[in-house]
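Hello,

Our lab assistant flagged a job as stuck in the queue for most of the afternoon. It eventually completed. Since we weren't sure the result was trustworthy after the delay, we are filing this so someone can double-check. Below is the sequence as submitted and the structure that was eventually returned. Let us know if re-running is recommended.
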Amino acid sequence: MTEVAFGNDGDFSDKAMVMKVNTNLANELGNLCQRVMTMIFKNCEKAVPNVDPETDFNEQDKALLASAEGLFARASPAIVEDQAIQKYASELIEMVWEANKYIDEMAPWVLRKENPARMAVVLYVLMEVLRYVAILYQPIIPTSANKILDLLTVPADQRTFQHLKHEYRIRAGSPVSKPEGVFPRIEMPELVEA
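-- returned structure --
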């Protein structure tokens, strides 16, 4: 959907599709979700970290959350006004890039030993970003987006665009299950060699 403007002709190839799925979904979104949820499962007593948004978030946390909270405002005009599905999807992909940059900078795997309380905050922030992204991905990839929302413990009745507000943040202390990959890489050697 990111490759062709709605209503226009475009090229399609199996190889390009596999590359897009593996890059944007498996490597970027899927890997981020797996890393975050695995760390929570292993290091936060198998529950959503218990953080206080009023006191625990630093400026970097607030900036990333503000970007996630503004994602709907950035992405929705692409659909509503322009019917530009590719622009909508690109906004979601860029949000995932921001989250991946944040996780690399915050390095929760290092914080696990040095500052477990800060690690918990970083992981919670990333869960919230994933919540926004997954809710907005539902029109494009509904089954996979809902698998992410399940992993994040988002209640089934809080998954609409109306729930893209901080009042519906993920509830601290909610038990999480051992995460399973949402986007397995597609291995198609015949396409890579072609």
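-- support follow-up --
The delay was a queue issue, not a problem with the job. The result is valid. The mean pLDDT is 86. The domain at 14-171 is CATH 1.10.730.10 (Isoleucyl-tRNA Synthetase; Domain 1).
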